[in-house]
Amino acid sequence: MKGLFKSKPRTPVDIVRQTRDLLIYADQSSASLSDSKREEKMAELAKNIRELKSILYGNSESEPVSEACAQLTQEFFRENTLRLLIFCLSQLNLEARKDATQVVANLQRQQVNSRLIASDYLEKNTDLLDTLIAGYENTDMALHYGVMLRECIRHQTVARYVLESPNVKKFFDYIQLPYFDISADAAATFKELLTRHKSTVAEFLSKNYDWVSSAVTYV
């Protein structure tokens, strides 16, 4: 009889929705719950993020399934799951942060009906890019945010926004940070900004060549 009541496997959409609910919980961080209850919720969140990663990348037993990836991607960007994940990243343990970073990176490449919907989402939520850039000021989060930012820059609209933003000048400060791994990561991101999208970069340099060249010389 026990087999008759076996729970159905969760779909990619189910996992994204449950992840979103857990991220909302983590973001609100209810003080009314005990520490043990919070640990339980955060462990469940880490497990869900690991499952999202497994769907997108596959595992030792199976390759990614395009339909499952598309369902996951569409649900992920249907609401503010990306926003929640970015803002809650610091509350995750190290392994969950790594998994979350890989999930966000992979989602930038996923197409739904021949569209990169991550690009559409970021174009409407550019403040998240400001958050990722400012992440270089947090020594614990800098490398995770740096990976996410470089993957987001794959989208030309995102790269254009960053180049036209006042925040672009911060990279020269980040490149000079005393932490080698963070300064090197910031340099890698800035190099990506100046090399990936030729037409956007050419337009940027035509307007900003003087201060860019002087800043590079100073660095």
From TrEMBL:
Domain of life according to the entry: Eukaryota
InterPro entries: Mo25 (IPR013878)
Gene Ontology molecular-function annotations: protein serine/threonine kinase activator activity
GO BP annotations listed: intracellular signal transduction
Name under which the protein is recorded: Mo25 family protein
Record organism: Populus tomentosa (Chinese white poplar)
